[in-house]
Request: fold
Amino acid sequence: MPLTINGEAIDDNLLDAEFSQIKAHFEQQANVSCCERDDEFMGYAKDNLIARVLLSQKAKSTIPDPSPEDIDAHLNKLIDENGGKEAFFFKLGIAPGNEDEVRKDIIETMRVDSLIDQVTGKNHEPTKEEIQKYYKENSTLFMTAEEIRSSHIFKSLQEAENKEKLFKEMREVRELARKGTDFMDLVRKHSDKPEEEADLGWYKRGELMDEFELITFSMDINEISPVFATQWGMHLAKVTDKKHPEQIPIDQVETEISEMINSEHRDLKLKNFINDLRKDAEIVDENSDKSED
Reply:
């Protein structure tokens, strides 16, 4: 095995799975293409696995096993959260009744959770000054979402005999709209949807189709969009109003800020604890030029 932690060999499949999950996350954020950051992602994967293994090893040596009753309660909670026993075991790829491996994982998870609770201690209660400082330094986190209101003309591609002809007709409609023809009159004459469905109301990013939002959130009020297509058909949109992001008053987000500060304190304590464990650990990585002693 290329990676061992205090003599415990790490399965290559675990490392590959962690790497794939990290890379997929960055790909979803459009922060990576192909393979140029694979070494970086593999480094993250190894760090994550090392941290989890070190916590598990420490918990096993210092935290007693939970009681059978607590294990049963934890298992039943997982079963309920996953839609029942059959669905739960199906997701795990285990036949109902073969619960020994699941119980082992639960014991490990509960031990690690207990260790983390010991390490991080009680919740940090931030002062008013801390809350105000956090609010000021992270003001962009506490903004209302940008919202758009738009109307659109829709033509179904399924009912179109000739897509090129339909596109040409929609461009002609666009020219009429740009020259001042009332947009709702054009809706009534040309849209395949009823007039009452033309106004899409207010919406934020993530609430409509990506293609539609990409167009409308880049437009100004009263601007007419180009003709564009989605999987449902062709569209012509007009932005009728906008709500720009605004600062949320601090008194409305004090609880949220307090929770964020507390979470950061817990994360820092846990990070420092893992770093201390790592200093005393014997970590051998056969695929790296360096090993940690």
